[in-house]
Design goal:
71% of the residues lie in helices and 2% in strands. The chain has 426 residues and is an all-alpha fold. The strands form two sheets. The protein has a two-stranded antiparallel sheet. A two-stranded antiparallel ribbon has the order 3-4.
Length: 426
Amino acid sequence: MKSIPFVILILAMCPRIILAFTSTESPRYDAKGYDEFALSIAQGKGFSVGGKPTSVRPPFYPFFLAGIYSLFGHEYRAVRIVQACLGALTCLMVFWIARILFTEAVAILSGILAGVYPVLIKSSEHLLTECLFTFLLALAVLCIIVGEGKRSICNAALFGFVLGIATLTRPFLLAFPLCLALLWFGGIGWEKSTLSFRMKRILVVVGVFLLTLLPWTIRNWYVHKAWVVVSTDGGRAFYASYRPPEGKLFGFNPVDEVDQQARRMSSEVERNRFFYQEAFRFIQNRPQELPRLLFLKFLFFWCPFDWELIGGGVYNAMYGFIILFAIAAILKCVKIKKVMTVLAFIFYFQLMAFIFYGSPRFRMPIEPFLIIFAASGLVGFFERHPNKAVTTIVIVSYFFIHTFLFVYSDAFKAFSAHLLGRVGVW
C-alpha cells in the first residue's frame, strides 16, 4: 500500500508530460497577457506594460512564469513541464486529502480520477493561472486539515501564507479568510476546541494572510498613490458580469459606451472604480434583470460544456459523470465538521460566481474537491449494493451515457440551448 502514492503520481504525470511535449499551442487572450508580463519581469523591466508599472493583473503567476523563463529561456514547453509536475502533485494531494477525510478506497479512487481528469490535464498546457492556482488551493486545504488533526498553529500560519499566495494569483479569494473565520468562530470545522483556541487560529490565519499581501499592496501604493490590494482588473470583470455581450455571454468584455469611456481614462485605478460604479448603476436602474442574470451565472458555473480549457464547447463527460455522485456525497457529509473547510471553498466559489460570473474555467480549481466527494459517493454506492456485478454494470453504463453525450456534444448543446430559450433564459 505504500507504493500507491507513487503509482498515482506516475499515472498523473504521464498524460501531462506527453501533452507538454506534443502541444503546439501559442498563448492568446489572457495567456498572451501573462506571457508579456512575465517577459517584462524576466528582462528586468518590472511588472509593467510598455515600460509603465501596472497592477492590471495579479502578480504571482507572471512572476512564476518569469522564474521559468529566467532559468530556461522563453520556452513554453518548459512552462508546461513545470505545470505538469504541479498538476501531478495536485493529484497526489487529492489522494492525501481524501485519505484524511474519508477512507483508503475513496483516496485511491480520488487520486486515479484526478490523474485522468481531462480538464486537470489540459490546465497544465495553458499559460493561465488555473494549474498553479488549483495546486495552491489543494496545498492550502492539505495544510489546514492536517493541522486540525494536530491542533497546530504552525499549520494555520502555513495555511494563511498559501492562501495569500493563491490570492496574489487569483484575487477573488480576498474575502475567503473572513468567511472561513465566521465558520471557525462558530466552532464549525474544528472538533472539540475552545473559543480562545479558535480565536487564536483565526488571528494567525488572517494575520499571516494579510502580511503575505502587504508587500504587493505597498508596491501598488507607490505606483498608483491609491490602495490597490492586489489588482485593478476586478471592476471590468464585475461590470461585464452584469452587462454581458448579447445579455448572456459571460467571460467576454462588452464593447459599449461604458467600455469606450473607460478606455479613454489614463488611470487604471479610476477605470477600475468607474466600472464598479457603472455596474452598480445598472443594478439600481434595472433590478428586474438580476434574477435572470443570477440564474445564468449559476448555470454557467456548473455548465458541463467546456469552451475554455478543453475547448470547442464539448461536453465534459468526466465532469458529467462525477457531479451527481459528488452532490449526493456533499448532502450526506454536510454536517460532518472535518469536511466543512473543503465545503467552504466550494460554497465560496459559488458565491463569487453569483457576484462576478460563472464558467467552467472559474469552477475548475474546486473540481479536485468535487472529485473527492464523487469518489466517496461512488464507493458508498458500490458498497451499499450487495450484487457487485450489477452495480459495476450500472456505473459503467452511466459512464458510457456521458461518453455518448461527449461524442454528440454539438447536438446536445443545441438541445440544451433550445430548452433554455423556451423558458426565456437563453
